[in-house]
């Protein structure tokens, strides 16, 4: 199953995050919903945009443009991760409207993994919910700030 979440930035432009997740069944529905909620909360901790759409089973649309001029879809987290079973690197994915206040002061250009706060919450939630293309668990290697002209 594919989960997607769309944000709108200060200029009214949108950016979308997509990830593979477990197929929904009656047996895992509640657990998957809990994991998705944790990822949504964790993404809110490292982004600045307003969520306008979530698609996972049912599509939910809401939100207006943010008042924060630092909310820009071109500011992205490049999420590098690998398959926890095969140890194969996975094509990285991007998460727009990056909140740069969580950059690591000792490794500029990257989010501070091991911060014990919002970055770690995101990593934990991502690893719990997102699956590799083979359907295996994943391990986050880094979150790098990248600017993209989109």
Blueprint of the fold:
Blueprint: E1 2-8, E2 14-20, H1 29-46, E3 50-56, E4 58-61, E5 75-83, E6 93-96, H2 118-129, E7 138-147
Antiparallel strand pairs: 1-2, 1-3, 3-4, 5-6, 5-7
Helix pairs in contact: 1-2
Note down, in words, how this protein is organized.
The chain is globular and about 40 Å long. The strands form two sheets. A four-stranded antiparallel beta sheet has the order 2-1-3-4, with no helix packed on it. A three-stranded antiparallel beta sheet has the order 6-5-7, covered by helices on one side. It is 20% helix and 32% strand. It has one domain. It has helices at 29-46, 118-129; strands at 2-8, 14-20, 50-56, 58-61, 75-83, 93-96, 138-147. The protein has 150 residues and is α+β, with helices and mostly antiparallel strands. A hairpin with a 5-residue loop joins strand 1 and strand 2 (14-20). Helix 1 packs antiparallel against helix 2.
């Amino acid at each position: 199953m594919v989960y997607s979440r769309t944000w709108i930035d200060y200029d009214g432009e949108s950016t979308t995050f997509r990830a593979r997740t477990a197929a929904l069944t009656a047996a895992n529905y509640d657990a998957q919903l809990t994991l998705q909620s944790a990822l949504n909360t964790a993404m809110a901790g490292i982004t600045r945009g307003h969520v306008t759409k979530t698609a996972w089973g049912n599509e939910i649309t809401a939100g207006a443009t943010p008042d924060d001029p630092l909310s820009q879809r071109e500011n992205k987290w490049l999420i590098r991760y690998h398959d926890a079973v095969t140890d194969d690197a996975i094509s990285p994915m991007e998460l727009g409207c990056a909140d740069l206040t969580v950059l690591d002061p000792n490794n500029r250009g990257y989010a501070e993994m091991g911060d014990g706060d919002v970055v770690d919450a995101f990593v934990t939630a991502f690893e719990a919910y997102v699956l590799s293309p083979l359907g295996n668990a994943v391990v986050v290697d880094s979150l790098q700030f990248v600017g993209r002209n989109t």
